[in-house]
Automatic annotation (TrEMBL):
It comes from Thiovibrio frasassiensis. Residues 148-253 form the Fibronectin type-III domain. It comes from the Bacteria. InterPro entries: FN3_dom (IPR003961), FN3_sf (IPR036116), Ig-like_fold (IPR013783). This is Fibronectin type III domain-containing protein. SMART domains: FN3.
């Protein structure tokens, strides 16, 4: 491209009109070609992205601002595509470079035609003569998207969320699907403002476990089906977003060796501590001999190992005391009852 521009300037000089033309900038100020053109498919179409140019072909900082981008686009029926043939690009699509473009540039194209291949390149421009070479090429085949997966649900556990779903009913146009289907998970940690795809390969199963999460924090998820048909990759419609909160669901162990001692101030209950890192305290229960259900009579926080029942039941008979441990989860997980200690009111 640069050689053609130089030739044109030289030919104009031979014409002898005497009018000076705008000088052609040397390679040292030409913007380096964009090398990270990428695409992302969804049920609406394709979104292209690339980095805003920052350097010349020599690696120096650009001495001017990029004014616009030219997007080269070719649309080819999938059955007619020839990987070794010249690409029939149409007229460039001009995209104005916004003043706020300091990182990524995005361009979305919708209303794509099913079973057609879309091929893209992009170049940056800073004036009539200042134009980069073409970027890398991206090529994608668009096909009718799948409906969303169904019966999407999330199982909460300690620092873990497990997603479950069922396959979509078919394609958006009602056609059943017999091609292989994989799944893509997206997650949001900012109340659904932005969703990011989970790293790794597409999922072939109907479940996904997200580990290493923070208990008590809300996470939002979407799942979409990806249809694999020959060289076609068709992204399906996403499921509705679903929120879940990982939480500790494992109760601590119950206290051991429960003892009761009668005193002038009441009945004092003692027990041994529980080795749990998130222990929050203990709850004390009392049961009458003719009852199957213990009644909670108090709670001790922290590392307390005793409790005074200042108002024990009056009258003769047997009474049974037990203790449980509970942790710091919200809501708290409570252990099973300890072995009961007997108190005989005489």
């Amino acid at each position: 491209m640069l050689l053609l521009a130089l030739a044109a300037v030289f030919a104009a000089g031979l014409g002898g009109c005497g009018k000076k033309t705008r000088p052609v900038p040397p390679d040292t100020v030409m913007p380096a070609p964009i090398s990270d053109l990428r695409y992302q498919l969804d049920e609406k179409g394709v979104e292209l992205s690339w980095s805003y140019p920052r350097a010349t072909v020599e690696g120096d900082r650009l001495p001017y601002r990029i004014e616009k981008f030219e997007l080269l686009r070719a649309v080819i029926p999938a059955k007619d595509y020839c990987p070794d043939c010249p690409i029939p690009f149409g007229p460039p699509i001009e995209i104005t470079a916004e003043s706020g473009d300091k990182g990524k540039v995005f361009y979305q194209e919708t209303l794509l035609r099913p079973n057609h291949r879309y091929v893209y390149r992009v170049r940056s421009k800073a004036g009539w003569f200042v134009s980069s070479d073409d970027s890398n090429t991206v090529s994608v085949v668009w096909d009718t998207p799948l409906l969303p997966p169904v019966n999407f649900r999330i199982e909460e556990a300690d620092k873990t969320l497990t997603l479950h779903w069922q396959p979509p009913a078919g394609l958006l146009d009602g056609t059943p699907v017999s091609d292989p289907i994989q799944y893509q998970i997206s997650r949001s940690t900012d109340d659904g403002e932005t969703f990011s795809e989970m790293p790794g390969k597409l999922i072939e199963t109907l479940t996904y476990t997200d580990r290493g999460l923070r208990n008590g924090k809300a996470y939002l998820y979407k799942v979409r089906a990806i249809r694999l048909h020959a060289d076609t990759v068709a992204a399906g419609m996403p499921s509705p977003s679903l929120s879940a909160v990982p939480r500790d669901l494992t109760p601590p162990a119950p206290p051991q060796t429960i003892r009761v001692v009668a005193s002038a101030s009441g009945v004092k209950i003692f027990w041994e501590t529980v080795a749990e890192p998130d222990l929050a305290g203990f709850r004390i229960y009392r049961r009458a001999a003719n009852s199957q259900t213990p009644v909670r009579i108090g709670e001790v926080g922290g590392a307390g190992l005793s409790f005074l029942d200042a108002k024990p039941p009056k009258g003769r008979g047997l009474w049974y005391y037990s203790v449980t441990a509970f942790d710091q989860a919200r809501p708290a997980n409570e252990s099973t009852y300890s072995m009961e200690a007997t108190y005989n009111e005489e």
